[in-house]
Every structure is written in C-alpha cells, then in structure tokens.
Amino acid sequence: MNRPTGSASDYMALAKPRLTTVASLSALFGTLLSGENLSTGLFIDVFVGAFLVGSAANALNQLMEIDVDSLMKRTEARPLPTGRLARWQAAVFAAVLGLSGIAYLWTRTNPTTAWIGVLTLVTYLACYTPLKRITPLNTFVGAIPGALPPVMGWAATTRPLSIEAFIVFLILYLWQLPHFLCIAWIYREDYTRGGLKMLPELDVTGERTAKQILFFTLILSPVSLLPVVLGLAGWPYLAGMIAANALFIALALTLILRRFENPRRFVLTSVLYVVVLMLSAAVDRAALS
Q: Are residues 208 and 246 in the same domain?
C-alpha cells in the first residue's frame, strides 16, 4: 500500500468529473423545460451546485466502499484502495464539496433546490450504496438520486414542484435503468467478486438482461414525449426525441438478437441519448424564445 500523497489527480478521481459532468448537465434539462426566469447565470449556478453535490456523493461512495473497490479489477487502482489517499483526506474533501454545494444552491438559487441536493446525497449514500450489498433491486433505488438533478434544475427557476416536474424526474429515472443494466452485465463478474448484488449476476447468456433493457427503453419512449403533451416543449424537442428513441430501441433489440455482441455500443448510445435530450430541449427553448 502506498503512502498517502493527496495529489490533485487523486482528488479528481474521487470526484469522478466525467460522470459528474453528465449528471450536472442533466440538471439543466429541468431548467430548460421549466422555461421560467432563465438566464446564463442561472444555468451556471445550477450546473456548479449540481456538480459540487455530485462530486461529494461520488467521493463519499468511494469512502464507504473501499473494501469493495479493492476486490474489483475496474476499481482496485482507485486512490483509497491503493492508499494514495487516506480516509480522513477523502472525508474532508467530500465534506467540503457537499457543504459547499448545498450552500451554493441555497444562496445562488433557493432553499428548495438546496434541499433536493440534500435528498440526492441522502438517497445515494444512505439507501443505494448499502443496498448494493443486499439486493439486486438496488438499481431501482439508485436511479432515484440519479434522476433528482433535473428536479433541482426545475426548482431553481422558482417554478413549483408539480406533475410536470415529476415527468422530468421520470424521464431520467427510466433512462438510467437500461443504461446501468447494460453496465452491470458487462461487469457482472467484477461485481460478484466485490460482493455486490446486481440483476444480471446470474444471467450467463445475457438474454434476460437484454429483455429487461428493451422493456425499459420501450417504456421510456412515450414518457420522454410527455413534455410535448404537457406543453413544456414543441416540435424541435419532439423530432429529436423520436429519433433518439428509435435508435435506442433498435440497439436494445440488437442486444437480444445478437446476444450482447457489442454491449459497450449500447452504453455509449445511452449517453448519446442524454446529449440529444439536452440539445432537443435547448433548441426547443431557443425556438420558443
């Protein structure tokens, strides 16, 4: 085990900036669909606040799962299992990020947005993280904090939480299920080695997992179009999402027909889905302005 160094790259690895950036950008989806009190400053504040909260969640998760990460090939080289960072260093880093994120959202947006940030941290760390060792249903719980950033973005515009805000939440919630089911199948042996319970754990051929992925992509498709029905978006959003859903469903079908021949392509496509979701909402909002 290495002596704790506390290098910048080690702290960066705790925060998982690439993953956190995607989650933080998804927060702007809620802001765009809300369509009220929009400004460049608001977009920046939502992104920064969500990024700080998400980084804290990632750091605390790694602190709670040092033993698990040390057993899995994909995580054994992280700063905490290798000893490049001490536990107290990670704890202080995470605390500073988390408190700064909540305080930032409270002062720069409003208390409701900050409380949603707190809820994101609590559900991720107190519910999802421990459930990974207990039940394969953890994925359905873990999708809750993952879908809360867009609700933060909605609340930041001061628009009341409503059925429209729930739809924003539901779109990101449903998107995560096929995304993480595919990731769980790719790394199923690693997760088993780490003692984590995932749905594809006993799915040797991948057929059952592929059918579950297709099922959730099929549900996601009509739900993702509800913003148009509710008057939150128009034709640019509708066109973009019809195309994204068609591609998503087609690739989900190939997982079944070709027995998970190229699962990483599906994961990359799922990330592209979020990009199209964001761009469609942004173009749509620009067209309405």
A: yes
**Whole-prediction pTM:** 0.94
Average pLDDT over residues 31-39: 89
Domain count, the chain: 2
Q: What is the pLDDT of residue 2?
A: 54
Q: Which domain holds residue 40?
A: 1-161
The reply to whether 48 and 89 lie within a common domain is: yes
What is the average per-residue pLDDT within 127-155?
95
One domain, residues 135 and 19: yes
Question: pLDDT tens across 246-275, in order?
Answer: 999 999 999 888 878 888 999 999 999 999
Dihedral pair phi/psi, residue 285, rounded to 5°: -65, -40
Kindly state the average pLDDT of the residues 29-54: 94
Identify whether residues 62 and 150 lie together within a single domain: yes
Q: Answer whether 156's CB lies under 8 Å from 110's CB.
A: yes
Which domain-ending residue is among 102, 134, 161? 161
Identify the pLDDT of residue 240.
95
* Long-range pairs of 71-78 with CB within 8 A, sequence gap ≥ 24: 71/193, 71/194, 71/195, 72/187, 72/190, 72/191, 72/193, 72/194, 73/190, 73/193, 74/187, 74/190, 75/194, 78/13
Residue 138: partners with Cβ closer than 8 Å, 6 or more residues away:
128, 131, 132, 197, 198
Same domain, 82 and 177: no
Q: For residue 205, what pLDDT is reported? A: 80
Q: What is the mean pLDDT of residues 133-154?
A: 95
Domain boundary residue, one of 146, 161, 176 = 161
